[in-house]
Amino acid sequence: MPRILVADDDKVMLGLLKTLxxxxxxxxxxxxxxxxxxxAARAQELxxxxxxxxxxxxxxxxxxxxLKNDAALKDIPVLVTSGMDRELECKKAGAEDFILKPFRPxxxxxxxxxxxxxxx
Length: 120
Fold this sequence. Notes:
CATH topology: Rossmann fold
Radius of gyration: 13 Å
CATH architecture: 3-Layer(aba) Sandwich
Order of helices and strands: EHEHEEEHEHEH
Oligomer: single chain
C-alpha cells in the first residue's frame, strides 16, 4: 500500500484529503506544520508528498527545498497546493507538480496517479 505524506494545517481539508487518499488505497501520514514535513519524510517510506503552500508558522517552501537537497529524500515526488498561483516558485524549489485550489478531487487524483506512475 503506497504511503503519502499530506501536509495541511486546515483540519477540514486535511480530513478530506486523508479520506480521499485512503479511498484510493493509500496509507496517509498527516502533518500540520512545515517543520514536521522533513522529519516525517525521514521516518517513513513515502510514495509521494502532498503539501499545502501555506502552513501555520510559514510556508512549506523551506521544507520543499530541504527535501530536494537531501540525498535520501530528493526522489520523493512532491505536489504542492495553494489558493494563490505559486506554481513557478514551487517548481523552482523542486516540486514536481502544483495544483491551484479549489481543485476537483478527480483532478488531484489524476495528478497523483501520474506522479506515482512516473516514479515506479
